[in-house]
Design goal:
Layout (H helix, E strand, L loop, with lengths): L3 H15 L8 H15 L1 H5 L9 H12 L9 H11 L10 H5 L3 H12 L40 H14 L4 H9 L1 H19 L11 H7 L1
Helix pairs in contact: 4-5, 5-10, 8-9
């Protein structure tokens, strides 16, 4: 799961600034309408997301389907998407990963996490003669040793580097600068919108989430 405000911007930027499929270029008005759409799905739940925790599957599923149809904000309402599934499946069947943490995790460590969760093991990735994907940290020769002269590299840049580079690109591009600045002006409002939904998800997951009450660092700061 990606931090919801940044995920919303990334989605809009892809659709409007990269592919040019989104014709609505007033991003503030667009997202304001989507916040109102969430209220129309269920005003009580939209204004008091903690009530999601009290609902049975059927009612959660109706709200989840409604918010899921909301183009940009709906995909970042993780509580509305996950809580219905958590009513149907046991908690150990879920592996929830933050995108920001995945991007900064060494590939081998991430692979171990996924292998342990799925129970598939990692031996297949360590067989002699197996060449890993070019983006992975180590390339192997036929004897299973790192290729001579190869300089290990991260699979991706850190999340901070990647997000800063992406945003700077849009700010420097005259065709996207206005939207990027307008979105920056409503980040705090969007964070307030998402916060109670994130809090509901944390309340449901409890200690199994593993690291406190906030999903992302800016929320941890705001709650302390």
């Amino acid at each position: 799961m990606r931090e919801p405000v940044q995920r919303t911007w990334s989605h809009y930027a892809m659709m409007a600034l990269y592919y040019k499929w989104e014709k609505q270029r007033d991003v503030v008005s667009l997202l304001a309408r989507e916040m109102n759409q969430t209220v129309r799905c269920n005003a009580s739940l939209a204004l008091h997301p903690s009530r999601l925790l009290e609902l049975p599957y059927a009612e959660l599923a109706v709200f989840g389907r409604c918010t899921g149809a909301i183009k940009y904000l709906g995909r970042s309402l993780y509580a509305a998407s996950l809580l219905p599934a958590l009513r149907l499946f046991r908690r150990p069947q879920f592996l929830l990963l933050r995108t920001e943490r995945v991007l900064s995790t060494p590939p081998a460590q991430l692979l171990d996490t996924l292998s342990r969760f799925t129970g598939l093991g990692t031996s297949v990735y360590r067989e002699p003669g197996l060449h890993t994907h070019p983006n992975l940290t180590t390339h192997h020769t036929t004897n299973g040793q790192p290729a001579q002269g190869h300089v290990p590299k991260r699979c991706y840049p850190s999340s901070t580097e990647a997000l800063a580079k992406q945003h700077a690109t849009f700010l420097a591009d005259s065709s996207g600068a206005a939207e990027a600045r307008a979105f920056d002006g409503m980040r705090a409002e969007l964070a307030r919108f998402f916060a109670p939904f994130n809090a509901a998800l944390v309340a449901e997951l409890g200690s199994s989430w593993g690291d406190g009450e906030a999903l992302w660092e800016h929320e941890r700061t705001r709650h302390t």
